[in-house]
Structure formats: structure tokens, C-alpha cells
Specification:
Elements: H1 10-19, H2 21-28, E1 43-54, E2 57-65, E3 75-81, E4 86-89, E5 105-113, E6 116-126, E7 140-149, E8 159-162, E9 171-183, E10 186-195, E11 200-207, E12 214-219, E13 228-237, E14 240-248, E15 264-270, E16 277-284, E17 292-298, E18 304-310, H3 321-324, E19 326-327, E20 329-330, E21 334-339, E22 342-347, E23 360-364, E24 378-380, E25 387-396, E26 399-404, E27 407-412, E28 415-419, E29 429-433, E30 439-445, E31 448-453, E32 458-463, E33 471-474, E34 477-485, E35 490-493
Parallel strand pairs: 1-19, 4-35
Antiparallel strand pairs: 1-2, 2-3, 3-4, 5-6, 6-7, 7-8, 9-10, 10-11, 11-12, 13-14, 14-15, 15-16, 17-18, 18-20, 18-21, 21-22, 23-34, 24-33, 25-30, 25-34, 26-27, 26-33, 27-28, 28-29, 30-31, 31-32
Bound molecules: beta-D-fructofuranose (FRU).
Length: 497
């Protein structure tokens, strides 16, 4: 039996693992298992954690509830890869096994220096001894904890850095998800926070030795933007700082902020000497139904790579995979760059290795450049189940594209809309304004879709639950379309406990 709300030791996990052999078989047989996305072997997955690269190896940890697809007690699972197309499931590595983190080894990050990985995470505690705790301002502890590793597998002792009492007095019990970076001659940590007045913000700490941390500042918008900012990250690309986080409690504004919780980047001008700052443009990172808790890291090539959770908490739509014993996945790894002052995301180039052959290329619309013509429809069911479609428009006034039965992407009046029809399990439509649609790169996995618009200016990430192949392009447009069947990535299992 899986015990809830008690410490979980590695030995407990090993015992439960032995008891769940049939569960593993049932999950593995689910036709909705993804071909080229990381998923929990069984149970539940949420945030990517501790992303880093050391000695050529990428480490991708994640929030993991091994045996319950609805998510309960959290530990850290662990995948590794050298190339983003062949992975190793290393099995869980961080357990809520101490008085510091007994009710969840919550999200955290990694900072690499001189071959040592410095991990930081939140040890979640819930005090279950009273009925009147609201778990917002009372009844919860959030410890900031550190440990180190040289290889990503063997960890030092957990070291308590800060407790709830160490955060500013006007904070609620919700302070978590440390992300650490170096700037100038110091280290900085951002923590997601909710004040007692239910205002979302980020707390900024400074350290000279990664052990002793001093509170510097709080970063928030002039007007309240949600009650809690989860999973913050702060990084610089081409001299511009970006703060990314997941605000909760932001009201929908037209086609913006339609999901229950948000994922945003904010342009941030920050003076680390005086702590003066200004938040500029705020935009959704991803416009789809299933994107949250993104984290970035710089790899050994100097690329800033983002991975998100392909899921979201508290949504009113569902995932039928729960019936098979698993839920959620991670997004494809995406390289972040800055174009015209905006953050753009593109799939890492390694993913081209998943292409199975040169693809099928077709020209549609008029042959003359710049003259829109009613495209001859390209329809059929011969498209593979798992594929990448690249569309280069010479011009596009309108588009209607079917990616699978009932799953469509349409462009009318400069609004691009993803519609999941009757196959979204409660997911309906999500849209974005695109002034000039020039390029689409679409990854269709067994039960997910990721759309990159105009070389990453906008993205949509969603689970989809239509398994019926259907493909069609029509509308007032012209260009070329290439469809590449995709191979599954390889996954080696090293976690037989
Ligand atoms: C975001 C989040 C984090 C927390 C973790 C717990 O999805 O709520 O704030 O650390 O998940 O699993």
C-alpha cells in the first residue's frame, strides 16, 4: 500500500515497485503512450526539475508520483540523454525521506560550476494536526534545501538553507521552486511567492558561497498579476533579462490567459547594484492547453534550452490516460533566442534526427509567388500517426489544416486557432493573433501536438485524444508542405529496482 503524507524512503519505493509489475504492463500497453516525449513510466509526472548538462550528459529530473496517475506525494524522477533522441530512465533519485521534506520533494533547479551540480529544491511540509489550517497562511512549511552531486546520480546530504520563518514576514506559506544563477561576482536565487495579501511575486536572494543567502528584493508587477507566481526563472539572452513564471489567478483577457493558470515571460530591466527594476512586456510563453512549470538552463554549447510540463494543474479538462495508469508528459526541448526583443522558441536541432526519411513534399496554391490562390486541397488518411509537418507559406490569407480527425489549425482574419473538436476531453479552442503567417512547424505525437509558429514566435502545446489519421490543407494560401514521418526516440530502462 502506498502511504500518503508520510515520509517515503527509497526502500519504500523499491517495495512498491515490486508490487506494481502489472501496472507497468498495463501502462506500456496503452496506445496513447507518446513516441518522442518523456512520460512517467507509471503514475503521474509534473514539473521538469534540476535541468542541466554535465560532461556531455543532459539530466532531466521531474516531479514524480510513481504509482498514482492523479499525483500525490512528490519525489524526483530522473532521465538522462546525450542527444535528445536516446534517453535513459534512471529511476527516482530524490525522496521526501526527511523531516525537511516529508510531504513532498517539490520543484527545484540545478546550477553547475566546475563539474559540480548544485541542486536547490523545496521541501514541502503540511502540518496535519489541526482542522483550522488553510494551508495558505497557516499549516504549511516550505524549506529551501540544497545538495550537490558530481555525476547527477550520487548526492550529498540535504542541507537546509531557509525555512518559512526566513522569508519576508508578509509572505504566505507559499514560497517555493528555487532557481539559481550566477551574475557578476555573486549567485542569485529566485523563489516563487504568494504574499499574505494574495499577490504573486518573485523573491530575489543573493549569496557569495551558494550556502548563505540574503534577501535582496521582491519582483512584482505594479498592478497585482495573480495571487501566486510558481516556478520562476530569471535569465539573460543577448543582454536582455527575462523573468519567466507561472502566475495563478489571472483573469482571462479575450484570447489571452484562457487557461486556469498561466505561463509567461516578462521583459525585465534589473539593476543588480541598486535593485531598481522595471517589468516590460508580458506575454504567454505557450498558447496551448497543456503547458506549465517551464524551466530553462544553459547547455555546454551555450544554448538556453527550455522544457515545460505538458500538463497543467486544476484544469477542467481531463486525460483519459488516467484509466491506463499514467498521466502527463514533458514538452520537447526548445532552444530560446531573442528576435526583435521577444523571446522565441524552436525545437532543438537534434530533433531532426527523429525524421524518418526526407519526407513528402508538396507545393500548393498558385505557382506565382505572392498571389494567394485557393489551394487545391491536400487531403488523405495516408499521413503517419506520428509526424512532423513543416509549412512554408509564400502567402497566406487563410488556412484550414486538419492534423488528425477533428484536430484543426485554422487562420482567419489574422487569428490562428487550434481546435480540438470533440477529441480534447474538454479542451476546446485556443487562439493567437499572428499578423503574417509565414511558417508552421508541427509535431504530432500519438496523443499530443506542439505547433511552432513563424519560427517560434508563438507556440501551442496540447494533449490530443483523436487517434484517427486524417490530414488536409486548404484555404487561401500558397507555399510548400513537407510531412516527415517521425521515429520514436529510444528509451533504455535502468530503473528496475
Ligand atoms: C507547479 C508546482 C510547483 C511545486 C510543484 C509540486 O506545478 O505546484 O510550484 O513545487 O508543482 O509538485
Amino acid at each position: 500500500m502506498v502511504r500518503k503524507y508520510e515520509k517515503v524512503l527509497e526502500q519504500d519505493y523499491k517495495t512498491w515497485y515490486q508490487e506494481h509489475a502489472s501496472c507497468r504492463e498495463q501502462v506500456a500497453a496503452d496506445p496513447r503512450r507518446l513516441a518522442f516525449h518523456l512520460m512517467p513510466r507509471t503514475g503521474w509526472m509534473n514539473d521538469p526539475n534540476g535541468l542541466c548538462q554535465v560532461d556531455g550528459v543532459y539530466h532531466i529530473y521531474y516531479q514524480y508520483t510513481p504509482f498514482e496517475p492523479t499525483g500525490e506525494l512528490k519525489l524526483w524522477g530522473h532521465y538522462t540523454t546525450k542527444d535528445f533522441v536516446s534517453y535513459v530512465d534512471e529511476g527516482p533519485v530524490l525522496f521526501p525521506d526527511s523531516d525537511l521534506d516529508a510531504h513532498g520533494a517539490y520543484s527545484g533547479s540545478a546550477y553547475v560550476e566546475d563539474g559540480t551540480i548544485h541542486f536547490f529544491y523545496t521541501g514541502n511540509l503540511k502540518y496535519f494536526d489541526r482542522d483550522d489550517y488553510d494551508y495558505i497562511n497557516t499549516g504549511r512549511g516550505s524549506n529551501t534545501i540544497a545538495f550537490t552531486s558530481r555525476n547527477g546520480h550520487d548526492f550529498s546530504e540535504k542541507q537546509l538553507l531557509m525555512t518559512t520563518a526566513d522569508y519576508p514576514a508578509d509572505m504566505s506559506c507559499h514560497v517555493r521552486d528555487p532557481k539559481v544563477f550566477r551574475h557578476g561576482d555573486a549567485y542569485y536565487m529566485v523563489l516563487g511567492a504568494r504574499s499574505r495579501e494574495s499577490r504573486g511575486m518573485v523573491l530575489l536572494y543573493r549569496s557569495e558561497d551558494l550556502k548563505h543567502w540574503t534577501y535582496k528584493n521582491r519582483i512584482t508587477t505594479p498592478e497585482t498579476f495573480g495571487y501566486m507566481w510558481e516556478c520562476p526563472d530569471l535569465f539573460e539572452i543577448d543582454g536582455q533579462w527575462f523573468l519567466t513564471c507561472c502566475p495563478q489567478g489571472v483573469a482571462q483577457q479575450g484570447i489571452d490567459f484562457e487557461n486556469v493558470h498561466q505561463n509567461v515571460w516578462m521583459k525585465l530591466d534589473y539593476d543588480f547594484e541598486t535593485d531598481a527594476y522595471e517589468i516590460g512586456e508580458i506575454r504567454l510563453i505557450d498558447r496551448g492547453f497543456d503547458f506549465y512549470a517551464q524551466q530553462t538552463f544553459e547547455d555546454e554549447k551555450g544554448r538556453r534550452i527550455l522544457i515545460g510540463w505538458m500538463g497543467i494543474p486544476d484544469a477542467d479538462y481531463t486525460n483519459p490516460t488516467v484509466e491506463a495508469g499514467w498521466q502527463h508528459a514533458l514538452t520537447l526541448p526548445r532552444e530560446l533566442t531573442v528576435r526583435d526583443g521577444r523571446l522565441v522558441q524552436n525545437p532543438v536541432e537534434e530533433l531532426k534526427k527523429l525524421r524518418d526519411g526526407d519526407g513528402v513534399r508538396m507545393v500548393f496554391g498558385t505557382e506565382q509567388a505572392d498571389v494567394p490562390g485557393v489551394a487545391s486541397e491536400r487531403c488523405g488518411a495516408d499521413v503517419p500517426l506520428v509526424y512532423e509537418a513543416v509549412v512554408e507559406f509564400r502567402c497566406c490569407d487563410s488556412l484550414h489544416m486538419t492534423l488528425r480527425r477533428d484536430i484543426t489549425l485554422s487562420y482567419e482574419n489574422q487569428i490562428l486557432t487550434l481546435n480540438l473538436g470533440d477529441h480534447g476531453c474538454g479542451r476546446t479552442t485556443r487562439s493567437v493573433q499572428v499578423d503574417n503567417l509565414q511558417y508552421l512547424q508541427i509535431f504530432v505525437d500519438t496523443s499530443s501536438v506542439e505547433v511552432f509558429v513563424n519560427h517560434g514566435e508563438e507556440t501551442f502545446t496540447s494533449r490530443i485524444y483523436s487517434m484517427e489519421r486524417e490530414f488536409c490543407v486548404s484555404g487561401d494560401n500558397a507555399g510548400t508542405l513537407t510531412v516527415y514521418p517521425l521515429k520514436a526516440f529510444t528509451l533504455e530502462d535502468q530503473c528496475d529496482a
